[in-house]
Amino acid sequence: MATRCATMLRRYCMIMRQNFSKSCEDKLNDQINMELKACHQYLAMAYHFDRADVSSPGIHGFFLKASLEERDHAELIMKYMNKRGGLIRLGTVPEPVGEFRDAMDALKHALELELEVNQHLLDVHALASKENDPNLCDFIEANFLQEQVDGQKILADFIRQLERAKSDTGDYLFDKYLISAGMHQAKKREN
Ligand SMILES: [Fe+2]
Ligand SMILES: [Fe+2]
Q1: Which of 81, 124, 161, 169 has the fewest other C-beta atoms within 10 Å?
Q2: 35 is an annotated ligand-binding site residue
Q3: Residue 163 assigned to a binding site
Q4: Which residue intervals define the domain Ferritin-like diiron in the entry (predicted)?
């Protein structure tokens, strides 16, 4: 009975579905799960740098903000999925890396993760083009592609600046530099 009821409700969802392929729906579900993986990874990084034996409040705050931003990304896609009449399928979030040698190690890991997320966004866009779905193309372009590139530049800058600091004192000053920084702030400042 419960299954029949769920199927009927699903039909109400489907009657407004138009030009939204199953392959795009699946790919967007993968994207939601990638954003949640990034959310989880940045949360693990944030609380690694909050440990008393690590004690880097600037990097803690930076990754905590990044984690919330990734959660926002996942929810933005979930809202979009419901607008298109798709079915959200949340998967298992993989266990994040929890130990980092230093700030450089974490920043390099974050940049790798962002490049992976960006590649998947580009794949979503390519699939949407192939499926002739301009609405999905527009959604990805308007909300993700520039923000990804901006975030990747910020991470690459931080990696280079930390390389230049080289000493413990430099590391400390670098942490101060990060306190008010956010990976995805450029777009918000423009608005
Ligand atoms: Fe993201
Ligand atoms: Fe990101």
Answers
A1: 169
A2: yes
A3: no
A4: 18-166
